[in-house]
Amino acid sequence: MPVISGRYSATSGSSLPPSGTYRSSTLDRSYCGSSYITPRVLTHSRISSTFDSYRFEEPKKTYTSYQKYSKGLESVDTSRYRRSESRTRDETTQRERNDAVYNRVMATSAADIINKYSPANYVPKCELIRSRSLSDPRNMKEKSQEPTRERISSIRTTLPITTNSRSNSTEQDKQDKNIAGLNGLRNIGNTCFMNSVLQCLSNTRLLTEYVKNDSCCGEIGPNGALIKAFSTLICELWAPGSSRVINTSLLKSQVQKIAPRFMGYAQQDAQEFLRYLLEGLHEDINRVKTKPRGITTEIDDNLSDSQKAAESWARYIRMEDSHIVDLFVGQLKSTLKCTICGHSSVTFDPFWDLSLPIPSRTGQVRLNQCLELFTKEEVLDGDEKPTCSKCQVRRKCTKRFSVQKFPKILVIHLKRFSPTERFRGKLNSLVDFPLNELDLSSYAANQGTPCVYDLYAVSNHSGTTYSGHYTAYCKHPYTHEWHEYNDSRVSSISARNVVSNEAYVLFYELSNHHSSHL
C-alpha cells in the first residue's frame, strides 16, 4: 500500500477499506436460567425432553370448576379473588418446577465447561508452530475453544494443577525460543506498509537485542515516547509462548506526532516510513542532549581525503550520536572534477540508505548493475553545472559517488517508483540480489576495504503505482529460517523464493568476519 511522496514517487496502495469480523463464543450467549426464557431455545435432546415433561403439563382448571358450581353465590368479588388466587398458585408452582430444571441444566453446563478448559486437557498452541501457517487467524479455532488468560487463571484458582517435569520444561523452553519473533501485526487500515517495515526491523538482530536488553533505557531523552512505544512493540513480537497478533495503534500514534503525513489511514510508502521512523528513534536516544552550535567553517582543502572524511564524520557525530546512527548510518563520498582545469573537490555526507536506480524496465538485472549505475560517473552540464572551487566560475564537471564508510546495517532501496516514472507505472524488473556474500569492495572509496554483507530481510510491494500490498520476507536471527510476514499471518518460506520482482527495500547485515575492518 505505498504512497510515493512528492519527494520520491507517486502514490499507490490498496483502496479497500479496513474490515473485521466478530466470532461469537458459546459463553457469550444469553443466560438461560432467566424465568422469561422458554425451554424451547435449548437444543440438547436430554434437556428438551426434561423440559417437555413440565412445559406441556396442563394447569388445573380450578377457576372453571368454581364458576360451574358457584352460580348461587352472591359475592362476585369473592369469586374473582378465589379465581385469581388459584391461577397464581398454579403459575407459581409451574415456575418453581421450571427453575429447578434450569438450575440442574446450568450446573451440568458449568461442570462441562470446567472439564473442557481443564489445564490437563489444554494443548499449548506452540506445539503446532511447525505447521505452514504460524499465526494465521483463519487457521485458529473459535474463541470458545481456546481458553483465554482470564479463563485459565480462574480455573487455576479452583482446580489442582499438575506441574511438568524438568524435561518437559526444557522442551517447552526450546519451543518458546523457536516461536519467539513469529507474531503477526494487525492491519488497522492500510497499514501494511508499516507492518512490513516493523517486521524487518524486528528481525534486525543488533537493534532487537539493544531494545530487549533495556540498553536504551539510559539513553532515552525527555521526549522518548516513540522509542518506548517501539520497545514495547518489539518485546511483544518477541514474547515467548503461543503465536498471536499484535496491535500497532500505539506506535502509529507516536509516529504521527513526528511525521503528520502518516496521520489517518491513507496509503503510504514503506521506504519513507522507514526513514521517518529511524530518524524519530534516533532523536529519542540521541546521546547529544544539548546540541552545540554547528561548525560553519569549511574543511581544509589541503587535507587528504581520509582526513577530510574523518573530520566530516566527527562533525556529524558531534550533533547526531545514537545507537541508530551506529547501526544504520554510513558515509558517502562525492567527487566533482572540473573538465576545464581538472581540479577535483570532494564532499562527505551521511546516508541512511542507498536508493539505487533500476537500469531496465523489463527483464532481469543484477543488483551489481544497479550499484554500478549508482556509482557511475555522470556529467553535470547546462543548468546543473556547479561552480569550480579553483576556477571560481560555473564549469562543466563530472560527478561520481563512492562509499567512504559502510554501516553495520545496509538498507538498499530499489527505485521502482520515481517522479519521472509516475505516469509510466511501476518498474517490475526482477532484480537478482544475493542472499549471502554481497561484496561491495569495488564500490568503496578506499580500494581494498573488505565489506561483505548477508541479506536478512526484504520489504516487498505487489501491485501497481496506485494500489498494492506490502509484505516482508525475514530470516530469523537465531534459527536462520525464512518466514513471510503478511500482516497478521506468518508462514515459512524457502530461501529460493526470497528473490522476486516485488522486492522493494533490502536489509543487509555486515558479516561478522568483516566488521572488524570498518
UniProtKB/TrEMBL annotation:
Provide the reaction this enzyme catalyses.
Thiol-dependent hydrolysis of ester, thioester, amide, peptide and isopeptide bonds formed by the C-terminal Gly of ubiquitin (a 76-residue protein attached to proteins as an intracellular targeting signal)
Q: What is the organism of origin for this protein?
A: Xenopsylla cheopis
Q: Which InterPro entries match?
A: Papain-like_cys_pep_sf, Peptidase_C19_UCH, Ub_carboxyl-term_hydrolase, USP, USP_CS
State the coiled-coil residue ranges: none
Enumerate the UniProt keywords alphabetically: Hydrolase, Protease, Thiol protease, Ubl conjugation pathway
Name the residue ranges with Basic and acidic residues bias: 77-98
From what superkingdom does this record's organism come?
A: Eukaryota
Give the protein family: Belongs to the peptidase C19 family.
Which stretches does the entry tag as region Disordered? 1-25, 74-98, 133-152
One Pfam family, short name please?
UCH
Q: Name one GO molecular function term.
A: cysteine-type deubiquitinase activity
Q: Which CDD domains match?
A: Peptidase_C19R
GO BP term, example: proteolysis
Stated name of the protein: Ubiquitin carboxyl-terminal hydrolase
Q: Where is the composition biased (Polar residues)?
A: 8-25
Q: Where is the USP domain?
A: 183-511
Provide the E.C. number(s) assigned to this enzyme. Answer: 3.4.19.12
**What is the enzyme's main class?**
hydrolase
